[in-house]
Amino acid sequence: MRLGIYLSTFLLFISSFSLKQKKASDFTPTFTISENPTHKIPKGQIYTFGYLEVLENRKSPSSKTIKVPVYIFKSRNPNPKKDPIIYTVGGPGSSTMPSAQYMNSYQYLDDRDFILIEQRGTYYAEPHLDCPEWSLAIYESNQPNFDSRNKDELFENAARACKERLENRGIDLNAFTTNEIAADIHDLVQVLGIEEYNLLTISYSTKIAQVLMRDFPEKIRSVVMDSPLPLEVNYDEESVGNLLQTAEKLFADCESEENCNYAFPLIKRRFFDYLIEKTNNPLEVSVQNPKNGERETFYLKGKDFISIFSSASTEEVARIPFEINKLLDGDLTSVKEQLISLFQEPGDGAGRGMRLSVWCAEENPFNSSEVIENETYKYPEVTGLSPVVFKDEICKIWSVKTVSEIENEPVESNIPVLLISGEYDHETPVKWAASMTTHLSKSYHLVFKGWKHTPTTNWSNPCAMEAANEFFNNPNRLPNPLCLNELKNLEFYTGY
Known about the structure:
It is a single chain. The protein is of the alpha/beta class. Helix content is 34%, strand content 15%. It has helices spanning 132-141, 151-168, 178-191, 205-215, 235-256, 258-263, 267-280, 302-305, 307-310, 320-328, 333-341, 352-362, 369-377, 392-398, 430-436, 463-473, 482-486, and strands spanning 30-33, 47-55, 65-73, 81-88, 112-117, 197-202, 220-226, 283-288, 295-300, 417-422, 443-448. Strands 1-2-3-5-4-6-7-10-11 form a nine-stranded mixed β-sheet, with helices on both faces. The protein has a two-stranded antiparallel ribbon with strand order 8-9. The longest helix has 22 residues, at 235-256. The protein is globular, with a radius of gyration of 24 Å. The relative contact order is 0.13.
């Protein structure tokens, strides 16, 4: 069943007229209902779908408008709480809209309405900042016959081609920042007449939450940040070190568990020695190209083998020592499966342009080139593994304006916040969330032992989602759902 009108007050704001010729100060954002949702919604779920129309660049008097899709899902509770949850996913560059298909699994709807908003520039937004050129460059650089000396030129040309194509469409690349996304959410709250709301954010979108808490705190009742990325952290400067530190913790936990240590003795030392040896003497691995049936040869170094840890999901964590031991014993089955996947056709570069704009305006400018250089060659196990998401030259080509210094400073707030971390999350490690508690006076921190990135999206075990929902119902204490007591210490798979 479709919900034609979410609340009668919304109608006061809904209209569909063009304001492209008006000054920015004269513009009024609008929400227009659409009969064409992005995804098929489960039967029985009442919802409204539409588009929020906002200025592309709020600082430009002559700015065009853009549209971002929004789902408003009605609570399953006949008497829902009046403060909805607004949700947007990570990235930057990922789409929130696919979550709409799985509303039956979201516990939040048991208590209140749940609103999904797409980040500007991502897949279902208008415009969508795609970069198929970049995906093609990734594909070409991963082929076994690619000359790595041409890698920088390959990606520079891809960035240049994507930028030219997007700008020829009239897109202002400076307008796709965390600040503008936060302002979009603030506009949505105003347009819908919401008096008070809660925020659910994961990974990159926790930066959006921090900006909202700083710049538009008035209507925010509570915030859940799953796998938080603090504004003040320079991600690129730490990424390789965080990866190795988290891997070391997992190995230490294996060695402290009797069965794991018995099955895989000295796993850390043996694996790290292996990485160093292969960095100095790359391993030759031959696989069959599924496209033409020919044998292709790859030469793998330590920085390639660390993916056994980095690419594992929460469901796969318990098998990591087992998979590493297979490698050390000469079993390359899993490695070859990963290599064969490199022959798959390149993707469409969904949201890549938006990611470039965010990263080149907000992360790259605050990096220290000396720290980056040191991080690249500091660790003999993975020497040459670049910590940067986009190199300096790429961001020079993208040439967006640097955000102000305040976007690299911690946010101080007394809004109730629940910080959720996965114990083995190397992308947004536990220490980052712990550091945020210093500046968030009403914050609580839950660490899910044995889990990795974004615990609230662990569909095999919804305990983190349950904790988040309990927090939304009572944001003045640390949630303690029954499922937390049922979580057991990670039992490593040994094959026995």
